[in-house]
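#onboarding

Welcome to the new folks! Below is a worked example of what a typical request in this channel looks like: someone posts a single protein sequence, and someone else replies with the predicted structure as tokens. Don't worry about understanding the tokens yet, we'll cover that in week two.

Example request:
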Amino acid sequence: MRPLLDLLHVVFFLSTGGGGWAPRWSDRSRWLQVDLRDRVEVTGIATQGRYGSSDWVTSYMLLFSDMGQAWKQYRQDDGVGTFPGNANADGVVLHKLLHSIRTRFLRFVPLDWNPSGWVGLRVEVYGCSYKSDVADFDGRSSLLYRFNQKSMSTVKDVISLKFKSQQGEGVLVHGEGQRGDYITLELHRGRLALHLNLDDAKLHPSSGHMPVTLGSLLDDQHWHSVLIERFNKHVNFTVDRHTQHFRTRGDGDSLEVDYELSFGGIPLPGKPGTFLRKNFHGCMENLYYNGVNIIDLAKRRKPQIYSGNVTFSCSEPRLMVTTFLNSGSSFLQLPTQASLEGLSIRFQFRTWNQDGLLMSFQLNRNPERLILQLGSGQLRVSYCHSALQKSEITIGEQLAWFSDQLNDGLWHSLSLETRGLKLQLTLDSEPTSTMELRERGQTVSDFFFGGCPGTSEDLGCRNPTLGFQGCLRLMIINNHIVDLFQVQQGLLGNYSELQFDTCGIQDRCLPNMCEHGGRCFQSWTNFYCDCSGTGYMGATCHNSIYEPSCEAYRQAGSASGYFTIDPDGSGPLGSALVYCNMTEDKVWTVVTHNNTELMKVKGSTLQRPYTMRFNYSASTEQLSTLVTKSEHCQQEVVYRCRKSRLFNTWDGTPLSWWVDRSGERRTYWGGFLPGVQQCSCSLDENCIDMNYFCNYHLPVSEITIGDTNRTGSEAAYRIGPLHCYGDRFFWNAASFYQESSYLHFPTLQAELSTDISFYFKTTAPTGIFLENLGIRDFIRVELSSPSTVTFSFDVGNGPVVLAAKSHVPLNDKQWHYVRAERNVKEASLQVDQLPLRYAEAPADGHRRLQLNSQLFVGGTASRQHGFLGCIRALSTNGLTLDLEERAKMTPGVSAGCPGHCSGHSSLCSNRGRCIERNSGYACDCTHSAYGGPHCKKEVSMSFETGSSVVYTFQEPFSVMRNGSAQSSPTSHAQSSRFRENVALSFRTTQIPAMLLAVTTFYQEYMAIILAHNGTEDLATDEWVPLTGIASAANSLASSTSVQECRFQSHLSSEVELNTIRSLTLGKVTGKWSCEMKEVMQAGSKGFVGCLSSVQFNNVVPLKAALLNRGSSLVSIRGRMFESNCGASADVTTSHSLSDHLEKVDRGKEPLKNATQSDPAVIGGVIAAVVFISLCVGAVVTRILFQNRQAEQLAAVKEKEHRRGLEQAYRTELDLQNSIRGSRKEYFI
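Example response:
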């Protein structure tokens, strides 16, 4: 780099002290402006403090401009607009600009400085000279480049240019041919749209061609670069530093343009292919078409160029813009200007915020006031007659049909005029709106734009909501332009927190940081992601809402049925619908396709073969991931034939074949290598008929049959669904037994977002699980103490540390689950079922995590603080790392992990936790609604009239956050849906009945009741709509019959139940309000019968009531006792929602062939039933008496077992309050 201007040794005597620049203490705007005398290419800047003083700048902002006005802030790739400065007066801090600036003027704006001194600055600028050819277009001019021949047909085109404009509309490039080809590059709503058609319009008159749109806020009067590269149908479209690759539709490969190519506009309006007829108004430079310098030819007046009204120097309109930086304290106060003709105000504004005060002033006499404000993206005009009376109109409702309302980041013009007793308002090009006034409109106070001063009560100005945060320009009051330069110099009006001569707006949705197709919305200071319909959730739509496999659904307690799985989790693949067959020993994943029936084929030849392609319910990539992750996959292929060959007998040419999932044609059968061309029965000589071959393979995406055209020739085939079971990565583990050992993998792909999940078990007090380093950035997950897991990283904003501390040691030689996530919005850490730890990322900080070393697992590159123990199922961004394969070739590390709880099968059921013992294992059923040695015994209680169990949460049931514990923003369409997991079994004869009720500290509630229609119903307060509620499996014949039912559902909601206070089983006592009569009635009646295996998220209230009698967390009212009544419900199985709906529908069908019974027959049946009941009662009484002693002995043993787990349960009771909606399980 070569220094352009050296001010490091030039002394400025602007204040008392040593050499360098320092502003006056009285300056409201402090900046150092550098004139480089001509446009140059700036590649670096350096700063120093003021010589021999305590004055230096610690951070600053860099602005640039061509003409010394209309400044723009320099921002780096990740949007950061500040530079770190100096730590002393003499040191030089150099910054090489990642993207050079072509400019003449630079401004250094100090933001922070030495607190013990003052602002002091010396600068040096590095770069090189810059030359360019410039053309100025006035909105009516254009450049025409005429071809040497009648038409130009090209298969390769390159168009490059730079432009700047204050207009958001205008055509930059246009060319078309008689055949229907065209290319148009235009500015539309401040973005660039490229229209490209290679089709023959005569052959394809109805073919629609959608434009490709790129860029944003391109009407800012600053230079933007454009590059279009086309080869055949492949196009690269680049605006500034953002590139979009696409492929044109149609059959053509060449672009045929007739006569000429126009730049800056379309000379003749109404041509076919014209999308916007407004010409470009602004400047272009370095305009090239296929290597031809168009502007240079125009300047030299070459005959192939026609330049109509184009000048070759860029004019700069003198238009000053001001930015309102703060919605709470920014304002502009201007004095009133008397006019006998009434009042006239015009200005333009742009913003991303939906709400904000635009303008306020007193009209006529107090308290009449006129207020113009943005509300929900529309303009609201309020005319206040008195303190209690006002008139209001809303403008911009029609505009909302065509755009994102007035907070779309575009410039909008507003005009206000008073004529007599009428107030007229015009917004953009909408029809004028009129409001009646009581008196002729005359202003008697100052005008307030954007907000009100903090001491403005005496002036009558008050912010109705928030102040305006955005940009204003072209302010005209009574036909006089407001001179904002005088305002900046303190010669006119008053202001606070304004930035003059620059619009600080930036598009935070470019590029779109929302993953998996999430929609990006933004305010002035932040962006938000709407994940609706994507299948993902989280701040950036990173996390899948579906489980990764059928095995995970079984761990959650689901029965067989259709489920949506996401095989790669947060990876790029989407979700797929599969059938999960939950058998006793295996969980089968079944992927169906479009044709599983037996198909017969006749009349096919090698020249005209029969072909069938199978479309599976999962994509090719999803199938590949599923097969790779599964332990075993199989697919049934049935092939029958008569007089049909697979191969030509003479030369071996295949007559039939199949295509695998990668699209490769295969001609071998039965699992043997290519070239064998036979299946296993042929080689083993055990086929039914050795004259014919068989076929049997998987997976099949397409089958072709080509030899069924002879007389009597026929083939029949059937391709079954794909069946897979097992997860070979779920138990993929490595054991680290040397502190200096580690596994290394390729660099973690974590620039903008990443998630890391794994299980570990150890006896060591500390150790690093994984680490990846960059030059300055890093990411690390470690066991920092026996009870604390730490997630730390640095993306350039300083280290961020999240720590999850357990109440019990984590080095207990048991499996523990860890999940760490970091994205541009936030970071989180989840350990087991501990409360989620969360930290929000700064809105304007560095975003990109830049790593360059290998990923170290179980240690670090320094071979210090290594991990001793086992790690398994390590996954990053949905990709599972093969620890076992890497461990086989690494000293100090062995594949697998020993222990009874390491087996593939789940030893403990129903969310029970497997605990290693020296001579076996034990199941900890603390977080399970079941008990017993393997967490299979249902925990049941019998409720009598008026009885209830109330579980009080020790702390608000919400997400725990680090630091200031500020909640994450929820505006702009919170994307994720909150879910409550509820499961219970019951047996009752009472209707209505209250099964479960949950209340919060904010008077919210959720209730599950047994309604009069014989099914469970779920009621909530009106603003918590719930979906996906499972109905009862059984319907009641009458209200006096006994109902047995098992209820299990994942209740989803658009709104979260905040800070849950208590959970009640049975009768609801105390004060609670509900407008639903049926819910209040059920709550007052309570529940009479048996409740069993009740679970609400991670809380098991029945077990808490049995094990913690006398605890402050659990209170029992009325008479109830432990019972085994839940055992009778074991015959009732859980069903999916579709199963329940089918049963309800079937229950509604009328009985067929039913006739009225004869009274005598009915009497006989009743007598027989009574006699049989007496006999059965006697037998049951005898059996119960004989089994009573055995039950007492079993009860003693169960109490001993329960007493052993009681202490552990009480210790970990607080861990039950984890994040809502979490479906993470303890998979053992």
